Amino acid sequence: MSDGTGSVAPPGRVRSAFKSGTPARVHRNPFDDVLEQIERAADVLHPDPDAIAPLRHPKRQVIVSVPVKMDDGHLKVFEGFRVLYDNSRGPGKGGIRYHPDVNLDDCTALAAWMAWKCAIVDIPFGGAKGGVACDPLKMSDGELERVTRRYISEIFDLIGPTVDIPAPDVGTSPRVMAWVMDTFSMKKGYVEPGVVTGKPIALGGSGGRLEATGRGLLFVCNEACKKFGFNIDDTRVVIQGAGNVGGTAALLMHQEGYKIIALADITGSLYNPKGLDVPGVLEYLRENKTVEEYTEAEHIGTADLLELECEILMPAATENQITTHNADRIRCRILAEGANGPTTADADEIVSAKSIFVIPDILANAGGVTVSYFEWVQDRMGFFWNEETVNTRLHEIMVSSFNDVVGFANKYRVNTRLAAYMLAIDRVAYDTRLRGIYA
Fold first, then answer.
1. How does pLDDT run across 177-222, given as a tens digit for each residue?
2. What pLDDT score does 139 carry?
3. What does the mean pLDDT of the chain come to?
4. Residues 129, 188, 274, 289: which is the catalytic one?
5. Whose C-alpha in 50, 62, 192, 413 is 20 to 30 A from the C-alpha of 26?
6. Distance CA 47, CA 355 (A)
7. Are β-strands 126-133 and 164-165 bridged in parallel, bridged antiparallel, or unpaired?
8. Could you tell me if 111 and 128 are in contact, meaning their C-beta atoms sit under 8 angstroms apart?
9. How far lies 397's CA from each of 3, 23, 90, 120, 278, in Å?
10. Is 105 exposed, middle or buried (0-12, 13-18, 19+ CB in 10 A)?
11. 129 in catalytic set
């Protein structure tokens, strides 16, 4: 049902609209990949069919209209979405994405991945996701604020600190989360910082949250290098994406001693086999909003970047970047997925056959939701930790979760992708049985 806030539709089968560096084609719906991974995990685990059946379906999907008065005076109606995939382990948790290609199918897949991600790191959240189909790069701050406040007003009854807790995602920021908190609090009549995470620290945000996803990637890459005996100083890293996830990971890994030989953002890809000056690249990008005229590195195509020889390849941009069109040309030892769903299910078989060690997205980029959990706990307690405590606890959870996934892979003799899904689905299905949701 729609709860009176919008229309509800079943998972569709339209193409994913996120663009990749591969040749133009019809993209696979990412929710198809979710369903395929569930079936692969179930084939090995043989779980209770009644416990697994609900996991193939989102709990709730909502579409809302978001009418906004633009700066030039005309009214524009945007389309907004919120999907709650599963809440058997706790309230939904998932970001708000502002991007022209946001659609229901992507939100459903992303919500499912959030459910598995929270289970992987064993925090008491389910999976959710939402967003508005808009282009924040072409909107003023005033337009963004009005979009945010109207969107939150439309989904007001569907979110809350014990129901569904949003966070930043592509195209949003701590400032947007401040507007989310303020709009929700105004309608409630009291301040409720726990309704959203990723807020500015002054409004109940957590130290370490902004860097958490990139820092989590550093921690799991460190563990993978230990596993294979790599010397960090000699480890070449290629990163697709220079935003909060990819850019932060690049900077932290550079500081750790890794050799970042290639880095890309939406405006271009840079390559230097001797290692990039990562702080310099990121500073140039902040000042110029593009790397098109950066002169201290070679400019290459995005597709070429993904195929560079390296020890660690980190796609940290959007979905569907490694596909059957380019998977056989990937030349890395470790694939650390900073983005959600960067490798399609069909391509994953090719990657596995090449004996590439995969740190799957639902583990690799779980640092963000882990520190979001810390933020939510601090908001609910009204007592805040210092950043050192946050980072220490993040390290403990990421290392423990990495070892859990590797242990599952060894126990069942499967690759780490399948092991991660098996571990997550096993935990969610177990809680589903305990609660008797399907009774």
1. 999 999 999 999 999 999 999 999 999 999 999 899 999 999 999 9
2. 97
3. 90
4. 129
5. 62
6. 28
7. unpaired
8. yes
9. 36, 38, 18, 10, 27
10. buried
11. yes
